[in-house]
Design a protein that fits this description.
- This protein is of the alpha+beta class.
- The strands form 3 sheets. It has an 8-stranded antiparallel sheet, with helices on one face. The protein has a 7-stranded antiparallel sheet with strand order 7-9-15-16-17-11-12. It has a 5-stranded parallel sheet with strand order 2-1-3-4-8, with helices on one face.
- Helix 5 links the parallel strand 3 and strand 4.
- It starts with 9 loop residues before the first helix and ends with a strand.
């Protein structure tokens, strides 16, 4: 065998990337790092996370638990984040995660919308969720200054009263920001009790009251389907509820999804916000298999507006009917001041 043909040098890139990620997560010598996986998790990610934790002097343990989601949909990196039944039903698994300083979550869907995650975070555990393709992770490695940028956006939402979203297609949505509990994702988990997602850089909030209409344009994207909008689609919103969806194929698809979910919260808006990930590629969802990525390029794309349906922890709404929908050309303003203008970030 000639030269380097006997070696798979991609593992070296992954080890380097995971080491940088754990450095951003502020892993310290002696800390307890648990790598959580299921049988379908990528073995190269488990190995890279294991090696990275060891290289930083951490005490590392890899735990593989049975797969199986409580959600009535395939676990194909949808973003629903319902967790794993095996963890929810096991006090041993839960205690292991609560005892860790950092959990590297390599499961297909993660636990973002599973109540058990809040219990784990309350114990002080940091969690970093990783599921996208290797080059997506490496291309979108968090950068110095990202946390300050997203925290500035959180401050704007926290201190604001009204967020308004418009676009040339006809979107005009007014959002009440009172008690919307703004959050951010920055791509690493460095604070005690923090969950984050690599890759991601975004500001989001959980409003209760939104009124107006959302008009999807050709080229916007429906997640978790990872399909681009082809027909203009209009959604009429009253007090956070989707009253009507009109348009072509995508309107019919959304209506079918809401009806088939048999979920009373399916037609209610969930979180919304804007992306700040400057390395994001809007077309990534067209370039990979649907089980290769979650689609964070589109969710966190700099200048995009992301809104969702279904679960709403602030209002106590548990739901598996979770859609994320990304829009490219919106203007997003807070109390009349643009943070995004026609799909472009407004930066100081």
């Amino acid at each position: 065998m000639r030269g380097t043909e006997m070696f798979d040098l991609r593992s070296a890139d992954l080890l380097r990337a995971f080491t940088r990620q754990l450095e951003l997560c502020k892993v310290q010598p002696g800390e307890q790092v648990v790598i959580l996986a299921e049988p379908s998790s990528r073995g190269d990610y488990i190995s890279a996370a294991f090696g990275a934790a060891q290289s930083l002097g951490a005490q590392v343990l890899s735990a593989t638990v049975p797969g199986g989601s409580p959600a009535p949909m395939p676990s194909t990196h949808t973003g629903a984040g319902p967790g794993l039944v095996s963890v929810m039903n096991s006090s041993v698994a839960q205690d292991l995660l609560k005892g860790a300083d950092l959990v590297v979550d390599l499961t297909s869907e993660g636990f973002i919308h599973a109540p058990i995650q809040q219990e784990i975070l309350a114990a002080g555990t940091r969690i970093i969720f990783v599921c996208d393709a290797p080059d997506v992770l490496i291309r979108n490695m968090p950068q110095d200054g990202d946390k300050e940028r997203v925290q500035a956006g959180v401050d704007l939402v926290r201190n604001g009263s009204i967020m308004r979203i418009t676009n040339e297609a006809g979107t005009d949505l007014t959002v009440q920001l009172s008690n919307s509990q703004p959050e951010f994702q920055v791509g690493f988990a460095d604070d005690k009790g923090r969950w984050d997602h690599w890759p991601s850089t975004m500001v989001l909030c959980w409003p209760e009251i939104s009124n107006g209409q959302i008009v999807l344009s050709e080229g916007d994207i429906l997640l978790p389907f990872k399909e681009y909008v082809r027909d203009k689609t209009t959604l009429t919103i009253t007090n956070g509820h989707i009253d009507e969806v009109t348009g072509g194929g995508e309107a019919a698809l959304l209506d079918m999804f809401f009806a088939d979910s048999n979920d009373k919260w399916a037609r209610y808006l969930s979180h919304m916000g804007w992306g700040l990930m400057k390395t994001g590629d809007w077309f990534a969802a067209a370039m990979y298999g649907k089980d290769d990525i979650m689609g964070m390029d589109a969710r966190a794309f700099a200048g995009s507006f992301l809104w969702s349906t279904g679960p709403h922890p602030v209002l106590g709404r548990d739901s598996y009917a979770h859609l994320d929908i990304g829009m490219r050309s919106c203007t997003v303003s807070i109390d009349g001041v643009d943070v995004v203008t026609e799909g472009r970030l407004v930066e100081a």
